[in-house]
Amino acid sequence: MMKNKAQNDQQGLAQLFTRGDVFSDKCPSRAVLNHVTSRWGVLVLVALKDGQTHRFSELRRAITGVSEKMLAQTLQTLAQDGFVLRTAYPVVPPHVEYSLTPLGMDASDRVADLIGWVEDNIHHIVSVQTAAD
């Protein structure tokens, strides 16, 4: 019953928006932008970009420096936003896999472009930072 109400509320909210406005503090697009462009959100999206499913431990190894707690929270948030698909298998020990939804793949493509630009220009960025010190 509660799940149906939540789904109806989300559908009603979605119908209010034809396009988001991240400059409005009332628009949910600002929170979604924060989730996608967060330090770990970007890295999760790109780590899953290969189109394969990955286990939690694989993602944790791929994204060095992320704690288990932050990775779990990031995956949960991206799943709630519709970018990540979490598939849990009813086995012992628990087996959970993560992959991108079509929406997540689109977002991943876009943040991967930004990552590529940063990596291509890091020598310029570092030289400017060094000159400023």
The CATH superfamily label reads: Winged helix-like DNA-binding domain superfamily/Winged helix DNA-binding domain
Highest-level CATH class: Mainly Alpha
Average residue pLDDT: 89
Percentage beta strand? 5-15%
| Count of domain modules | 1
Run of helices and strands: HHHEHHEEH
Q: Rg from C-alpha positions?
A: 18 Å
Structural class, by secondary structure, is: mainly alpha
The rough form would be described as: globular
Strand order of the largest sheet: 1-3-2
Largest sheet: 3 strands, antiparallel
Which CATH architecture would you pick? Orthogonal Bundle
Topology:
Layout: H1 2-16, H2 29-37, H3 39-47, E1 54-55, H4 56-62, H5 68-80, E2 84-89, E3 95-100, H6 102-132
Antiparallel strand pairs: 1-3, 2-3
